[in-house]
Design brief:
GO terms for molecular function: ABC-type transporter activity; ATP binding; ATP hydrolysis activity. The protein is of the alpha/beta class. It has 19 helices and seven strands. The strands form two sheets. Strands 1-2-7-3-4 form a five-stranded mixed beta sheet. A two-stranded antiparallel ribbon has the order 5-6. α4 (89-103) links the parallel β1 and β2 (108-112). The longest helix is centred in the last third of the chain and has 36 residues, at 426-461.
């Protein structure tokens, strides 16, 4: 992707090992995977930085690590969206030279680059120029200037051909249409090994078989029907859980802030409700304490996923789209790894207030709660939390202390009766909470999977994005620039 979406708080080597475990499965042993990781890092010039965490890498190093992660399973075709964005001139040339080296190893690398320099433009094997949804040129980079001459657009010798063609197609719609017609919207390709310029004759255009039919009938169909992962659900779950625990452990500042926050809040709540837990004269105070605890956890953590999920979902989309792991394994690992610090919530702030009202409904008239209200109360996960805490406090408790002439609630069972929890069991509250976790996690993973499948289909089948007649007959993988 255009942005370098790297997992934070992981070293280069750790990121590569996790990618190797997820993408290579059990077909290779640990020694073979280590050799693959070392070879890739050596090739991309990252071996000396193998112990550097991703957030401490430079822009060029981050870009190379993004490429390295996808090279683990040696893909035949690599798409790169604006790989030179945000890099200085030296880093840009180093990256493109590296991509050219990778293309010479049998891979096809396709890049979108809007403003390549003249030296950078000359490094591409094939250029594919797009304007207003049409292909205006497809062929070798050195043949772009002769092609422009054919349509009456003379590129000055001191001008960058890439800048000149972009300015031409952007400012002159007629020239753009004429160029598209001359190359038959990209179906005709100019190749250096087939082009001759003798006696002032115009270069002869040669036609290649369109890749569209091949891509749709073979590659896309196979990929859409066989969406399997290299590893099993359990393997993905363990690898992702380990990764998330490492990231959480290294986020020491957040952990210390959470610890101090919990301790301070516990001291404040404890001082407010001090010495009232066993007083039969004020039994409702205990419910106020339980509600205060629920509200603390709810409002403290409810904004964490709201703020962080947009960034996390971008990395999730990249890794899932490239078939690293399934969404069910990701959300299972996320749920399990967030349990120790309770880092997250399952609903947004908009649903909090009504759920809190349903949680507290029936205080004082528990046996007379309406049937319709019981149904609504069962939709509030906070009710299950409050019931679990209350049952743990009162269901098997002996008589409470009474320092007055008469205490109505000396018997704890009367308290549970009047708040509508007399017939509830502790384990059913746990089952209810687990049910809410499944209900809220599983549909989200299904929706994400549906969205990514649609994205996959559009990427494979979108005729406006790819009509590269060159891929099927490229020989060794070329470096293709799309402008």
């Amino acid at each position: 992707m255009q942005d370098d979406l790297l997992q934070p708080r992981l070293s280069v080597c750790e990121s590569m090992r996790i990618a190797a475990d997820l993408k290579l499965g059990k077909e290779l042993g640990r020694a073979e995977k280590e050799l693959i990781v070392e070879e890739i890092l050596q090739t991309l010039g990252l071996w000396e930085h193998r112990n550097t965490r991703s957030e401490h890498l430079s822009g060029g190093q981050s870009k190379r690590l993004s490429v390295a992660l996808e090279l683990v399973n040696n893909p035949p075709i690599i798409f790169m969206d604006e790989p030179t964005t945000g890099l200085d001139v030296v880093s840009i040339r180093q990256l493109v030279v590296l991509l050219r080296l990778l293309s010479r190893q049998g891979r096809t690398i396709i890049c979108t680059i809007h403003q390549p320099s003249a030296s950078l433009f000359s490094l591409f094997d094939r250029v594919y120029v797009l304007s207003r949804g049409m292909c205006c040129y497809q062929g070798a980079a050195p043949l772009l200037v002769p092609f422009l001459t054919e349509v009456g657009q003379i590129c000055p010798s001191t001008h960058n051909p890439a800048d000149f063609v972009v300015e031409t197609v952007a400012s002159d719609p007629e020239a753009s249409a004429e160029m598209s017609e001359l190359c038959q919207n990209g179906k005709l390709c100019r190749k250096l090994d087939r082009m001759t310029l003798r006696g002032g004759r115009k270069p002869v255009l040669h036609s290649d078989e369109s890749i569209q039919r091949i891509f749709v009938e073979h590659i896309a169909k196979e990929q859409l029907q066989k969406m399997e992962f290299p590893t099993t659900f359990l393997t993905q779950f363990f690898i992702l859980t380990k990764r998330m625990f490492i990231q959480s452990r290294r986020n020491s500042i957040t952990l210390w802030i959470q610890l101090v926050h919990h301790v301070v809040s516990a001291v404040l709540l404890g001082s407010i409700f001090l010495f009232v837990g066993n007083d039969a004269a004020v039994p409702i105070v205990n419910f106020k304490f339980c509600i205060s605890v629920l509200v603390f956890f709810m409002y403290t953590y409810i904004m964490i996923p709201v703020l962080l999920f947009p960034m996390e979902v971008r990395m999730l989309r990249r890794e899932y789209f490239n078939r690293w792991y399934g969404l069910k394994a990701y959300y299972a690992a996320l749920t399990f790894s967030s349990l120790p610090v309770m880092n997250g919530s399952i609903v947004g702030p908009a649903t909090v207030s009504p759920l809190l009202v349903l949680c507290c409904y029936g205080m004082g008239f528990g046996p007379y709660i309406e049937t319709r209200m019981k149904i609504l109360m069962s939709l509030s996960y906070l009710r299950y939390g409050l019931s679990g805490l209350s049952i743990a406090l009162y269901q098997k408790r002996s008589s409470m202390e009474c320092h007055q002439d008469f205490c109505l609630y000396s018997d704890p069972k009367l308290i549970l009766r009047d708040v509508g929890m007399a017939n509830e069991t502790y384990y059913m509250q746990i089952v209810g909470l687990l049910g809410f976790i499944i209900i809220h996690r599983y549909p989200l993973s299904s929706v994400m999977r549906h969205v990514n499948l649609n994205l996959t289909s559009r990427t494979y089948l979108g005729s406006s994005f790819l009509d590269l007649a060159s891929i099927s007959r490229l020989g060794l993988g070329p470096l293709v620039g799309l402008s």
